Amino acid sequence: MALPKYKTSRANTHSRRANWKATATATVSCPNCGAPALPHVACPSCGSFRGRIYREAIRHPHAK
Ligand SMILES: [Zn+2]
Q1: Interval between CA 49 and ligand 1 midpoint (Å)
Q2: Ligand 1 centroid vs 7 CA: distance in angstroms?
Q3: CA 42 to CA 52: how far, in whole Å?
Q4: Are 31 and 23 in contact (CB under 8 A)?
Q5: Gene Ontology cellular component (predicted)?
Q6: Burial class (CB in 10 A: 0-12, 13-18, 19+), 44
């Protein structure tokens, strides 16, 4: 197995990690209540999807 000959420099490590960024999660606004929801998933606020209520709304653990 190939082994690195030299220790990766701080600058190389940092410039590589500088390109690693978090991106915001894609959301769609619920046509029933307008709350942001994940696409293709029943709305966490009112539980509706494609014009039907599939289940009771859940309280998101991060929501206040
Ligand atoms: Zn909704």
Answers
A1: 8
A2: 52
A3: 9
A4: no
A5: ribosome
A6: middle
Instruction: List helix spans (H) across 1-64.
Output: 10-17
CB 18 within 8 A of CB 31: no
d(CA 26, CA 24): 6
Q: Which two tokens stand for residue 3?
A: 């082994």
Q: What is the pLDDT of residue 12?
A: 96
Q: Return the pLDDT at 13.
A: 96
Rounded to whole angstroms, the Cα distance separating 18 from 56 reads 42
pLDDT of the chain along its 64 residues, tens only? 899 999 999 999 999 999 999 888 888 888 888 888 888 888 887 878 887 777 766 666 776 6
